[in-house]
Specification:
The protein is an all-alpha fold and 357 residues long. The protein has helices at 9-23, 25-63, 67-116, 126-132, 134-174, 176-190, 193-235, 240-250, 257-272, 274-300, 308-351. 86% of the residues lie in helices and 0% in strands.
């Protein structure tokens, strides 16, 4: 005998679980943070392996190197590039901090002049002042040290995640063929053959979209880095070449990336000479026009297959949900969603024998 409304039981169970989770949101967030801390190194490891795999394949096919040796060469190059970036960026940060420190006497003098104008400060009893504000002082000191400890733990966490991610990426690259075979066997084991073939084709097309987008973006960013670095160097911005590379590679984030990357050189130029910051702004606008008119369409034209409006909206959504990483990968993900949606619409139209031109 069929029980009425039995089909609604799973829905009711899910709603009750959601209500339970909302009532114990702190516990739920703890478990979520634990899950993210576990999955983050795995995700970044797979991401690094995915980005470096084309280089490994190139060395294997072009120079007929064994895969293990190709992986070693690629990681040596990867390490050298990271080291060069650090060597370029650290002096830039140092010079910026030095300039800020050099400006401190001016700010201190201005502060001293302001306090001298307040005659009531001379009449204050220091002991009474400290006694009346002891709780505030203790709270501020405690907050300062807790903030420092949190920052230290965050830095250590980033170092740990980076180290583990690189190790995972090495294992993924080494056993990539095995991972692909296992994934394919799993898909065909749990899905019908037609569905498995469709899903496998979807994964292959997604891989192609991601590969084309990331490859094109890296080439575009390298070209913009060279142009920006040369421009900043010519107009006299201190450490213009590394700042140019920062501007160029920030371009990986569509739309907002170039403006984020332009902030450090603008501030550095303003500290050096306020009028120089205006020239940096003009240079940033000019480089973006060159990218939009010539470089972008030539390198990325047709690679993702979505409109500018969709790109802009996907960047906003990706940034709101997943921060900087969401901005970077929002465009290829939106392209994949469009691919799936277009196929769904085409299938429905074919079933109705409708042709729309």
């Amino acid at each position: 005998m069929r029980i009425p409304l039995l089909k609604y039981v799973p829905f009711v169970v899910i709603v009750l679980l959601l209500i339970k989770g909302i009532n114990q949101s702190s516990v739920l967030l703890d478990y979520l943070n634990l899950f993210v801390s576990i999955i983050a190194p795995i995700f970044f490891g797979i991401l690094i392996a995915y980005l470096l795999n084309p280089g490994v394949k190139y060395l294997c096919n072009r120079f007929h190197l064994k895969r293990g040796l190709s992986i070693i060469v690629v990681y040596l190059i990867f390490s050298i590039v990271l080291l060069m970036l650090c060597v370029l960026i650290i002096p830039t940060v140092t010079i910026a901090l030095t300039k800020v420190v050099n400006e401190l006497p001016t700010y201190i003098a201005a502060l001293r002049d302001a306090t001298e104008n307040i005659t009531s400060l001379k009449e204050l009893n220091l002991d009474d002042l400290l006694a009346s504000n002891s709780d505030t002082i203790i709270s501020s000191v405690t907050k300062f040290f807790s903030t420092g400890l949190y920052a230290l733990s965050s830095v250590l966490g980033i170092i740990y995640t980076t180290f583990v991610s690189i190790l995972i990426s090495i294992y993924v690259l080494k056993d990539l063929a095995g991972f692909k075979k296992l994934t394919k066997k799993t898909i065909f084991s749990f899905m019908k053959e037609d569905s498995a073939k469709t899903f496998t084709r979807f994964l292959e097309e997604s891989d192609e979209i991601f590969g084309k987008f990331m490859g094109g973006k890296l080439i575009e960013s390298l070209i913009l880095s060279i142009i920006s670095g040369a421009g900043l160097f010519l107009i006299g911005v201190p450490y213009g070449i590394p700042m140019g590379f920062l501007m160029g590679f920030a371009n990986i984030i569509p739309y907002v990336g170039p403006f984020i990357g332009a902030v450090p050189p603008i501030l550095l130029a303003f500290v050096e000479q306020p009028s120089l910051a205006i020239w940096v702004i003009i240079l940033t606008i000019a480089v973006q026009q060159i990218d939009n008119i010539f470089i972008g369409p030539k390198i990325l034209g047709g690679r993702v297959g979505i409109s500018d409006f969709t790109v802009f909206v996907s960047v906003l959504i990706g940034g709101a949900m997943f921060g900087m990483l969401g901005m970077v990968f929002s465009v290829p993900i939106a392209s994949i969603i469009k691919l799936v949606y277009d196929r769904y619409l085409n299938k429905k139209l074919e079933e109705k024998n409708i042709v729309i031109e």
